[in-house]
Amino acid sequence: ITCKLAIIGAGPSGLLLGQLLQQAGIDNVILEKKSAEYVQGRIRAGVLEQGTVDLLREAGVGHRIDMEGIVHEGLELVFDSSRDRIDLKRLTGDGSVMIYGQTEVTRDLMEARRASGGASFYEAEHVQLHDVTGVQPYVTFTHEGQPFRLACEYIAGCDGYHGMSRHCIPKEILTEYERVYPFNWLGLLSDTPPVHHELVYVNHERGFALCSQRSASRSRYYLQVPLTDRLDDWPDSRFWDELKRRLPQSLAERLIIGASLEKSITPLRSYVAEPMQYGKLFLVGDAAHIVPPTGAKGLNLAASDVCTLYRILKKAYHENRVDLIGRYSDIALRRVWKATRFSWFMTSLLHTSVTPDHAAFERKMQRAEFDYYMNSAAGLKSIAENYIGLPYDLVE
Ligand code: FAD
Ligand code: DHB
Q1: Which residues' Cβ are closer than 6 Å to ligand 1?
Q2: What tens digit of pLDDT does each residue of 346-378 get?
Q3: Is the ipTM of this complex over 0.90?
Q4: What's the pLDDT score for residue 240?
Q5: Ligand 1 center–CA 9 separation, angstroms
Q6: What is the number of the ligand 1 atom nearest to the C-alpha of 31?
Q7: In this structure, are residues 284 and 302 in contact, taking their beta carbons and an 8 Å threshold?
Q8: pTM here?
């Protein structure tokens, strides 16, 4: 088989890049390790920036988002029990975010892929990249027991944090920056109406809590939990009791509980790999960087990487701007580091310290930071403009 671009991974990054390029007449093949059902079933992000929604529209998959997505013009931050609203719309001059689950984004993109006739191999095994710095790179893999060789001009590593693409960059060229946070998130999905019409991020002395949602009848809640806790430690009843204790009374008394549809534990990590390209290989999304989920940036950052690479490849193929190829990493990393900063800032502001030596001092710092940000026009604006998503860098 041959194609212009080989895409490794059919998460949101790979599917969106594939769809945009397919529309631009740049043919591509997607190789995914897992089954389509498995990829579709993973419950992850829920907040889309305007730039992400615009890009999905550009890819021709904006229809269902525009019908079913919920526009949020604000969010709440809570310290102990005092609630402060961040008015995204007013502070950013008409900005907002969209509530629409990653599962739905993936479903829409998978459908568009089928309709476009683009080739995808799910349950592809032993995917290996070859000659990524050569004239003609290629990818080998096994599918249904058959060996394949895919010749291509470029390769997009969209295979997430645990993928193999990043490991094709030699150690002496790749620099990794990492911070692992000393707590996890426990998430619960339920068919219950959200406790509040907007998202609520809570710093409580018992730990962080987040009230999110997928629709008017489906809620997503998260709790900060110790690294040592397992899912078995958290039957639904314990989750709801703990969430109630961390919410201000005005919210706790309105909380409607119900059976969980899904519960999962997520580690929190900041990680950036530099550079995001090597020869003909580009790293996109989680394959190149991980942010802790607190700022809702993971999926959105994947989308902005996709946008940058898409615009570069389109200009390279349609306007012969091959000079742009070498600029992908620099352009993408500027925005990556800003989102990494914001996610780290939100994580530090909202989680309780687990190091007893510093806990009392850190809590004072958090309170001072809260007081400052919530009572400063500049502070509020800074949180608002980062939350709705910083502008995309131009490719020209
Ligand atoms: P992925 O979605 O990870 O997709 C990569 C794909 O590559 C996968 O389908 C994988 O199976 C495939 N793959 C891996 N290795 C290979 C291989 N060798 N060959 C072929 N295919 C391969 N973000 C938020 O904004 N909010 C959240 O609440 C949130 N929660 C999260 C919870 C969890 C448990 C995780 C893991 C992530 C969460 N994220 C969240 C982050 C967000 O989901 C990711 O940023 C987003 O999925 C990135 O998309 P991606 O396509 O780059 O990577
Ligand atoms: C969700 C996840 C986040 O990390 C976040 O900041 C907001 C919402 C969610 O899954 O709904």
Answers
A1: 8-14, 31-34, 39, 44-45, 102, 124, 127, 158-160, 162-164, 266, 285-286, 293, 296-299, 302
A2: 999 999 988 777 889 999 999 999 999 999 999
A3: yes
A4: 98
A5: 9
A6: 20
A7: yes
A8: 0.97
> Which tokens sit at 356?
């007893």
